Amino acid sequence: MTAGAALLVTWCRLFIGMDFKDESYYILVPWRWVLGDRPFVHEANFLQFPGIVEYPFLKLFGLLRHNDPTGLVLYTRHLYLLMMIGVAAAVFLLLRRLVMWQLALLISCVYVTYIFWATPQLSYNTMAQAFLTLGAVFGVWVVVLGRGRGYALASGAAFGVAVVAYPTLLFVMPFFAVLFAFAHGRRAVAVLAEGAFVDPPDPEGPPTGHDAWRSLSAWAAGGALVLLPAGLLLASFGVGNVGRSWRNTMAGAHQIGQLGGAAKAVEVVRGYWAQLTWQPLVIVAALLVYLAYRRWPRLGRVLLVGLPFVLWLSAQRSMLNTSGYVQASSFLALYLFLFIPASRREAGARLLIWVWAPALIAGAMTAFTSALGVQNSAVGLAPTLMVTGLFLAWSLTEVFDGVPWLAVAALVAVVAVTVMFQLQFQERDMPYSSLTSRVSSGPWWGIEVTPQRHAELDSFASGLRATARPGDRLLVCFEAPGSYLYWNGPIASYAYWMMASPSGGLPQGEVAYLHGNDVVPTLVVHLMHTAGLTPAEIAAGDLGFGYPPVLVRPTYVIYRMPAGETTAQVLARLPQP
């Protein structure tokens, strides 16, 4: 019942709210490929590469809808939900071997009910979360349950897809390989498990160090099966094109704080530490609970039912939101390990080595390479959610004999916390109460937005239809990738998400693109508030193209290239790159 209700709430969440920037960009990249744009030619951002995971599904949509984008956003949101249901199913099938199926179901539910950044959409973030978790799950079948190389191969392949979705994860995969082999070793496990296993090991049980090489080679082969074809595909787009996109992305990354060298690394470490120490009273309570457990084990375990409240508090920190929930859950896994029964210590130790430690490294990498910093660590830390839930279940099932009602209650509360987040957090912090108008056309069909946003979308769509002509090349300025979802024709821009230059004019990259490709837009949309502007000020918003305005609306102006004017004449008016 709880799982069904949580799934229903999450499904309803797909129809609510919109993000015209991030979410639109996630969809736009593979959608433009469906419409004929060439990767790394018509878009100079390396972050488009994860689009190859989405492309087959959007291509299917295009074929079925004859490239009509109506309902595209809702379609991809449902794909996201199906992906996360698949992850939850994989977690459930694993955990039911380690705990009662009712508890396994509740633990796995959080992969559906938790929504990163309040955006239920296919993206490099959510796909990385999903496939990192799948890779960890298949690896647990090997290092904990003693399954063969087929599971190791599947684990490596899943991690390969995670790297395609989030390319910088490639740099932490060697650490994953070391920890995968390390988790096979009896001596390594003994350090954590305090000798609570029988030696020699059961031949039907978990693997030993002798199996490490066979499993690791299969794991590496699985990764290669994904990454080698992906690398060849990347090379097929043209080394020069890929290199140009990489340089452009790196230049922008330093500007917006995606990278930053040692200073950014220190920032990530400080972020982790701040999350650990943000509530001194929680730390004191945790110490008291552990001391009570050492003296009265049953009482100490009973007190763990307060953990869902701590998880709820963790998302209330400024700028962390639901990411704080994942971080807190990750750190609590290490704490809960102290409470699990001795009979579970070996399996718990292997989970810490194989799932928790690699996820911590992946979280640091996703934080380091994101402008959001430590908030984005939730992407890499996602696999730890199942470890925390499992350790909590193991600990609480020891309290009373028979039905583990205390564990059920605690895990239901954890799921409830993630459902509460869906009611509390919205894309762009838009409250539910204001989302009262359902979009009835276009790519956002079926999504509930504010009446003002609905009017703006309808206005933009009608304005574009009224001014567009066959063969037009469109340019929309600035930072509005969602606008291009309404346009199936050519785009005259080096980036679907184009940032304005400090001067307010065209960025240097756009100028270089237009000159280098001997092309100019015939239709320019400048998103600007026109109330109170003079005709001269509106005309000056053409960004140097010299086009007259043909449509003026409250939130945008459309300019058209004059009839009879040549590309060379327009380029002559633009600055040289």
Describe this structure in words.
With 577 residues, the protein is mainly α. The protein folds into two domains: 2-429, no CATH class; 450-573, no CATH class. It has helices at 2-13, 22-34, 51-65, 72-95, 101-113, 124-143, 149-165, 173-182, 186-193, 212-236, 239-256, 261-277, 280-295, 297-302, 307-314, 322-336, 345-368, 377-381, 384-396, 405-424, 451-467, 508-517, 535-539, 567-573; strands at residues 437-438, 448-449, 474-477, 523-527, 549-553, 556-560. The protein has a four-stranded mixed sheet. Helix 9 (186-193) packs across helix 17 (345-368), helix 15 runs parallel beside helix 20 and helix 19 packs antiparallel against helix 20. The longest helix has 25 residues, at 212-236.
Q: Kindly report how far apart the N and C termini lie.
A: 62 Å
Structural class, please? mainly alpha
| Helix segment tally | 24
Taking all Cα atoms into account, the compactness measure Rg is 26 Å
Please provide the count of β strands: 6
Main sheet, how many strands, which sense, barrel? 4 strands, mixed
Total of domains? 2
In sequence order, what are the helices and strands, one letter per element? HHHHHHHHHHHHHHHHHHHHEEHEHEHEEH
Shape designation: elongated
User: What fraction, in percent, of the residue positions are helical?
Assistant: 55-70%
Low-pLDDT segments, ≥5 res: 195-204
Spatial sequence of strands, sheet with the most strands: 3-4-6-5
Q: What is the mean pLDDT?
A: 90
Query: What amount of the residues lies in strands?
Result: under 5%
